[in-house]
Amino acid sequence: MAISLRSDSAKGYALSMPAVVYVGFLVAVPLALMVAHSFWTQDYIDINRELTLENYRQAVDDPLIRLLLIRSVVIAGLVTGLTVLLAYPIAYFIAFKTQKKALWLILVTIPFWSSYLLRVFAWKLILGYNGVLNSGLLTVGLIDEPLSFILYNPNAVVLTLAHAWAPFAILPIYVSLQKIDPSLLEAATDLGNTAIERFLRVTLPLSIPGVIAASLIIFIPTVGDYVTPALVGGADGKMIANLIQVQFGAANDWPMGATLSIMAILVVAFVAAVFVISLRSAGRRIR
Amino acid sequence: MKATEKPLLSRSIIAGVAVAGAIWSGEVKAEGSDLRVFDWSGYEDSGFFQPYMDKHGSAPSYAFFGSEEEAYTKLRSGFSSDLAHPCIGVTRKWADAGLIKPLDTTKIKNWDQLLPTIKTVSGVAFDGKTWMMPFDWGNSGLIYRTDKVDAEKISLDLVTGPEFEGKVAIPDIVTSAYAMASLAIGLRDWTNMTDAQFKEASAYLRKLHKNVRFYWSDPGQLDQALASGEIVAGWGWNQTELNLLANKTPATMMKDVDKGVATWVCGYVHLANGTMSDEQVYDMLNALSDVNSGKYIIEAWGYAHANADAYGKVDPALVKSYGFDNAEVFLKESLLTSALDPKTEAKMTKEFERIKAGF
To answer: What is the ipTM metric for this complex?
Structure first.
C-alpha cells in the first residue's frame, strides 16, 4: 500500500514537472524580478539596487498615474458589464432554447479563428474616418461629413474589447446554466411562479458562478490591455499598460515600469475581490 | 503570487535566462557571411554594400530590431553583433553603456567624401572621438495637404489655431514631438536647451494637443489619415511625403528651414562585443559609404546619403524634387535630432506623457 502510494505520488510529481518548470521559469522568476525591480531605481544606464520605496511614493503622488489606473478599471468594468449583459441571453438561448447546441457553440467561437490583433484592426476599419460605418451613413445620407468622434476615444476601446472577449463570457455562463436541474424550474412553476419570477429566483442565482467566472476572465486581462487602447484609444483612451510600456521603452525606467505593474496587479486583485464577494452575497440574498 | 514571498533566485540563473534568450534570438538571421549586422528591417538590401559582396562573396548575416530601445535592451542583455545601425540620438547612451567602440576614420577610405557637417554632428562625434559612420539621413517636418492648407500661410504656429481642431497628428515619439516644439519656439540647436525653453516648448505641445487627432505610432497611420483627409497636417518623415505623392494625394513637406524642419541622421557603429576582424568590419563600412551605395539609396529609397559625391551621380531633377540639392546648407540650418543630455530627455519623456493625457 505504502509502496504504491509512493509510486503514485512519484507519478504525480513526474506528471506535474513540465508545468512546474514552465510556470517556475516563465511566471515565478519574472514575477520575482519584477517585484525586486519595483524597489530598485534607475540611474541613467545602471540600476541602483538599493532597496527603496521611492518609486511607489512617486507613483502614488502622481495624478496622471491615478487617472490612468482609474480609467483602466472603469474601461475594464464597462467592458465586463457590457460583455456579460450581451452574452447572457446568448448563453441562455444555447442552454435552454435550442437543440443544436454544438453548432451554436462553434459559431460563438468563430471570432477566435482570427487573431486578436486583426480583430482590433477590423474595428479600426469599421470606425475609421473613411471606414465602413461612416461611408455607410454617408451613402444612406444620414450624415454630410464623416463622424470623427467614433474612433480614438474610450468608447472605441470598450466596443472593441467587448467584441473581442465575448466568447469568454458566453462559455462559462452557458456551462453554469446547463448544469441547472430542470426539476427545480418545474417546481417553481408548480408553486405558482411566473416565468420572470422563475428566472429571477431560480435560474439567475444558480448561474451566478458562471457570471462571476465570466466577469473575472474578462476584467482581469482587459485592465492591462495594451494593444487596443494603443490602436483605437487615441490620447483620451490610453490605459495604464500604455504608460508601463513607455517606462520599459522610451523612458528606460524599468523600476518605475515594474512599480506600475505591481500597482496595477494590486488594484485588479482588490477590485476583483470586492466584486466576487458582493456578487456572491447578492446571489444568496435573491435566493 | 507565492513566488514573491520566496527569496530572489540567484543572479546566475537570471544571467543564464538572459543568455539563453540572446542565443535563441541570435539564431534568427539571414544566410550570409560571418560578419553580423544588427539593423532596421530592409537595410539588408545588397544594393547598399555591393563592393563587400564582390570581395567576400556573400552578404553579412543580418539580425533586425524594430526600435532603438528594443535594440538597446537586446544588446545590453548580451546579444552580440559586429555592426549596428542606430541614429545619432542614442549613440552617446550606447557609448556610456559600453556597447560601442570608437571608429578609426583613417580606415574608412570614403571618409573624405562624406558631407563635412554630418561628420562632426554631435552623436557621430563626441568626447573627441568618432563613434558612428553616418550613412543615411533625411527630414522630419510638417507634411500638409496643399489643397486644404494655404502653402503661403503654413507654419508651426498656424496648426495650433482653432481651425485645425482634430486635424493634426504628431508622432508618439517624445524626441520627434520636442524637435517640432523646439522649432516652433525658434530653437534650431536643442542640445543646450534651457529650462525656460523647455517650458516654452512644452507649452507649445500643450496648445497643439487640443488639435491632435491622434499621436501616430506607425507612419502608415499618418499616411492614411492624410490621404483620406481625416487630418490635414502632421509631423512625419520623408517617406510619408513620397508615399502621398505616389498615391497622387496633393501634399508636401514644409522644408523651408526658416519655418522649421528637422533632420535625422543614422549610421553604423562598431559594437564592443563584435568578434569579426577589423578588416571585415571596415570592408563593410567602406562598401556602405561608397558613392554607388549612395546613388542607390537616393534613387531606390528616396533617402539622402552621407556621401557628398553621390548626389552628382543622380538625375539632378530627382535630387531637387527630394530637396537634397543643397545638402550642406540644409544640414546646417535644420534642427539635428542629436543626442540630448540624459536628464533633459528623461524630463521630456515624463512631460510628454502628461501632455498626451491632457495634463
So the answer is: 0.82
